[in-house]
Every structure is written in C-alpha cells, then in structure tokens.
Amino acid sequence: MRTRQINRMSSIVLVLLSLIALITVVTGLISPPPMPEPDEGTQAHIFQLSIAALLPVTIVVLGSADWRQPWRSLLPLIISAGVTMLAFVGLYYLEHLR
Questions:
Q1: How high is the pLDDT of residue 15?
Q2: Of 72, 63, 53, 43, whose CA–CA distance to 14 is shortest?
C-alpha cells in the first residue's frame, strides 16, 4: 500500500471510531435508564474500545499525512476531535446530570 492509501484508510477509520463512540452515547441518552448492573454493560465496553483505538489510528494518520497539504491532512483529525468531544459531553451528561 502506498502512503496516500494508508492515510485515506486510517482517516476513515479514525472518523468511524469517533462516530461509534458518539452513537453509543446517543443511544444511551435515548434509551431509558437501565437497572444497575454488576458490569458496565455492552455500550460502555464499545465506547471504551472505540476511544482506546483512537490513539493508534491517530498515530497512523499523523505518520502517513502529507504535510504539503496541511488542511487535507488535518481535516479528519479536526472532525474526529469534534465528534469525540461531543461523545464525552454526552457521557458527562449521562454520568453526572441524568
């Protein structure tokens, strides 16, 4: 694979992981509060795995970026950061205000 293809694929994965984290939080906001479980539940594990996977994918995106076109290289990072921030805002609401 060429560097451009690696960057394109990892950029897509980066945004998808952020969207997965956001979708799991949004489904938690939409559904009624469940009874307390001894374990955190499937949604929490999916959220944690998607957030944990963001770091290595971000490193691949940064390592394979073409810095001669900085905006094109930074756009997936900006989108991912914004979506991830929304996911954490929703998670804060779920944990502390609901």
A1: 98
A2: 53
DSSP 2: -
- The type of residue at 90 is G
**Is 1 within 8 Å of 65 (Cβ atoms)?**
no
Strand ranges inside 4-61, DSSP E = none
Phi and psi torsions of 28, nearest 5°: -70, -35
Whether the predicted pLDDT of 74 surpasses 80: yes
State residue 37 phi and psi, 5-degree precision.
-110, 155
CA–CA dist 12, 75 (Å, integer): 11
Model pTM score: 0.90
Domain boundaries, the chain: 3-97
